[in-house]
Amino acid sequence: MKLFILGCYSATPRAFTHPTSQLLEIKNHFFLIDCGEGTQVQLRKHKLKFSRINHIFISHLHGDHFFGLPGLISTFRLLGREKELHVYGPKGIKESITLLLKLGDSWTNYPLVFHELSSNTAEVILENDKVSVTTIPLDHRIYTNGFLFREKPNERTLNIAATTKYGIDKSQFNNIKKGKDIILESGKKIPNERLTFDPTPPKSYAFCSDTAYNEKLVPQISGVDVLYHEATFLESEAHLCKKTKHSTAQQAAQIAKKAKAGQLILGHYSTRYKSIEYFKQEAEDIFKNVALADDGKCFEL
Amino acid sequence: MKLFILGCYSATPRAFTHPTSQLLEIKNHFFLIDCGEGTQVQLRKHKLKFSRINHIFISHLHGDHFFGLPGLISTFRLLGREKELHVYGPKGIKESITLLLKLGDSWTNYPLVFHELSSNTAEVILENDKVSVTTIPLDHRIYTNGFLFREKPNERTLNIAATTKYGIDKSQFNNIKKGKDIILESGKKIPNERLTFDPTPPKSYAFCSDTAYNEKLVPQISGVDVLYHEATFLESEAHLCKKTKHSTAQQAAQIAKKAKAGQLILGHYSTRYKSIEYFKQEAEDIFKNVALADDGKCFEL
């Protein structure tokens, strides 16, 4: 699992800071999470292939998470895309994108499938044999969802030495990886655990932005491997959180601690601060394993 | 009159090329012409003050001329703007921007005034004692206007030596600059031409993008000082013009020649070409005074 940060600053795009967008590589899926203005330029700058993106998840319809989407959708058309593109986001996303395409008489020549979200409880919005994606209802000024990405349990790993020892044919390997026992020609049964190693534990990633501090989300993300939680402010500006429905770095760390997350990644920094290191320092008072998102940074999870 | 090119490449924004947007400084007005994605970042990069922009002119609703507008309008709000902002553009621009602001519950806290255009003949859309702005109906795949910006005639310039010689009081200077004759206390009449020099001739600028080659626009821009005319293609790709309703560099030069323009600025280049110098070479076969727009370039007109 790899997380590429295309942008992680709040409010407006600036010369050297970009609004929210992330590319999550998970089990050979490339999920784009949020799409602030300029996301397509960030994809190009970092030489990330547009064509690998088939699913886009939009947390909420504030411009800094969303205004890059019409352009990206249009660019997919110019690049000759033919594959389906799935867009998950709050109700209204379809109407607005459709209106912009209509005004430009620029309909896509690929199937553009909207999955509009309006539930206030968590729901599975994508599931296949590799991954599941579940919404995380957040507490912001407008309807907002985070997203919980979970790998499905991995297959057991083949113990090649053991299969050779027992003279097992390759045609059996898929069955073995799925956990099945093997009966040799002699009639002898070889239990699966002699032929395999335990699989790598499946990973999970929770994206929680934008949101006020809200303990209600803790049970859903309990035990998550990596939590990205917004930290717009430092404690010195904590008084701004109530009105803006954002969080401080310490509040993000509280959520990570309560959820027993493996790692906390901070982002969505207000650009009022001179250094983002302050966010890390504040969060580390509460929670140990803190990393700072930054534009262009790639996390191997 | 100054023209700052924020972006002048066609189609999608890329790492180092930007879609159409220009800032025209004319008689102390700062007119933004078109607003492709990333325009607000270009304004920041080149340290151009957002607050000086009170009028935005949108030629048409293709993304590369328009998708930066929702973000710019939102940023004006975040910057605490209080002044009116006037947006001129094709019918539908109000509905789309309003819908995006509504979905984000992000209404502007300054008056946002839309002037929707739907006429197929030229119309004066802004006029005051300094400038006039007239639409130039263009020939593109969707409803598109260019814009003709004209300075109003300048005041006559005071001949200070002459006013001193006749002992004329400063209180008369405004009248003199407006062209009035002066009657001295002695009763002697001093004709205005003895007290003033001829004014600088008023300048004009025509923005014509996007458009197919269309001689119909020639009469309207006849004698224009500076013509910006799109040149998406070179002659080698002239066959693409019909379907896309774009022009070649030579066609742009033909229009400049027929209109007896003072200078031709080319732009809206397709990014398929290795160098934009080719556009200049082709146009110069037809018309002498050709300049190339490029992102970040400023023309003193």
As residue ranges, the low-confidence spans of chain A are none
**Strand line-up in the sheet with most strands of chain A:** 6-5-4-3-2-1-18
Class of the largest domain in chain A in CATH?
A: Alpha Beta
The main pleated sheet of chain A reads as: 7 strands, mixed
* Oligomer status: homodimer
Into which percentage range does the β-strand content of chain A fall?
Answer: 25-35%
> From the helix content, strand content and strand pairing of chain A, which structural class follows?
alpha/beta
Overall 3D shape of chain A: globular
CATH architectural arrangement of the largest domain in chain A: 4-Layer Sandwich
The number of domains of chain A is 2
* Number of DSSP helical runs of chain A: 10
The CATH superfamily of the largest domain in chain A turns out to be Ribonuclease Z/Hydroxyacylglutathione hydrolase-like
> First CA to last CA of chain A: what distance?
5 Å
- CA-atom Rg of chain A in angstroms: 22 Å
Which two chains share the most extensive interface? A-B, 36 and 36 residues
Order of helices and strands of chain A: EEEHEHEHEEEEEHHEEHEEHEHHEHEE
The third-level CATH topology of the largest domain in chain A is Metallo-beta-lactamase, Chain A
Please give the share of residues in helix of chain A.
Answer: 10-25%
Number of strands of chain A: 18
Residue-averaged pLDDT of chain A, rounded? Answer: 96
